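Researcher: First entry.
Model:
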Amino acid sequence: MSFQNDDLFLVNRGGDSFKTEYVQLKQSINEDSGVHVDNNPPTNPNDGDLWFNSDDGRLYVWYVTETTGIVTDVSVRQGGSGYNSAGNDVSTNGGSGTGLTINYQAGVGGTLVNPTVNSGGHSYNVGDVVFVTGSGHANGSISITAVNTTPTGQWVDASPDNAADGIEEAPIDGKQYARQDGTWEEVVGGGGGTTINYNGASAWASFNGTAANGPQPIFNNLNVSSVTKTASGTYNVVFANPMGSANYSVTSNGYSYTQNRTANGFTIVYKTNGDGGAALQNVNPGDFAVHALNALPPRGGTGADAWVSCKADGTVESSFNIASVTKSATGKYDLVFTTPMPTAEYAITTAAGFGSSASVFVLSKTTTGCQIGVFSDITQAYLDMDFNAVVHASNAQLPDTITMQMWDDLVARVTALENN
């Protein structure tokens, strides 16, 4: 697969995650690390240059196999005497370089004739004179008439030896894995062991909760196996891959709360309003997100695809992938994404400002944005209020990266090449 310039990559820096386009990532790598990232190698490479092939995910190093001054053609300068039989791979001495050997034929009177290059040596110049050595030879000399002027070499695969098709893929068995010291190790939820600094959601879903009791239709999700309605407004959620413990965070839309949390799932309950005695109600859509300490997402998962912290007047305090927020009416805010979602079936989790008696609802969703409503639990009317919103959509994939293991293997292979 070839990467496209507008492909999005997830970058983790000091525990913070952000997204960048491939074209910007490629430019940064090329400028800062000296690695050429493209599906084609760089032109006119120098010895030791690095190329990451974005087609096959392999790292290569340019290794010069022949330097300049390699002899490509010679002629007789003085035939000498004593060359009574043909010679093959005969050593020479003299000139500005070393390592030249030749083949020749015996001429009339024991002279040296028809010399050709056997091994070109290196560091010679046109016009150099070398002498043919060996027992019985006398006064035979050769003029160097041609040498190469451009180093020649080849791209040497510097990726790990045990990964003929790139970094070895993690096992595909529904479990979660992390790679450390060249091997894949299973990571169980957020439990102890391998340290994984992943800050995205460990599970999320958007579902239609209006069907009869039983399994409910799920629009989109990450790491959610099923949502089952047991009574009006009451839904049991089961994870595809369990959390490390029951100590995780759940955020959701509407008037809702959770109960019966375990590592395998939880129950979420929706009510008609924020009053403790309010009736239960079915919801469409039901949106929630789960964050667990130190838990990896299933393969293909990433962090939030958009989020915003917004003031009551529509002013954006901070955001990601939010082009604008417009207060279109009292308590109603129109959000526009910078980069659209692939479908309108994404999950939005929300929260009202600190100390408020209000609930935040999603009034509408499209691929390019959504409308958020803030509703007072006291006056039962829309009101202007600070709010937060987080969007999760199935539109991104964890990036392919050059790992420290690859760099270590590269250093070892380049060192071995130099020593040889």
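Researcher: Second entry.
Model:
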Amino acid sequence: MRFAYHTEDGESWCDVILENVISEEEAFDKFYELFDEFVAENVNKRNGNDVFGLTPKNRFDTSTIDELMKISEDEMKLILPELMFWISDMDFPVAKGLIKVLLRYPDLLIPAIKKSLKEGVPSPRSQFKYNILVYLIPELSLRHKKMLIEDIERICRFPDTFEEKTEEVYNAAKALYDELVMMW
């Protein structure tokens, strides 16, 4: 699934989400409502590979976790970006199950994690980088963690986005970096 910055009518998604909202909580609620609608509509439009039918329909949809655990690496390549989205908030019921699914494919996960931690790339929520640092990377093998050490070190030494400068993301990166350095 590719996300556009504008609706089909040409409106900015930010404008649509922030229209008539009073608080940040209302904005997030509206975002999740619109996103759930978008996913539900677009999942039904897919005709090709059945693996797309296994992606969560909304943040509560844990019904396909067991089936996702059985898909091939080639199938995972097709849906990895969509599955990564759902770990942006670990309060989503589907998130914990998807962490287990994602960890089954570490060789595919490394480039996705590197892209997510890349310098100058803000995520939609600072929580996304935090969740990668706290829930995904620590569960990887040492070999795979070593592939990410430069990205983690960069966040510790030269945080460049607002979210990387937040105490939560910085502290998670620092703790992980210190742990990796101690392992060597």
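Model: Note on the second entry: Residues 1-5 have pLDDT under 50 and may be disordered.
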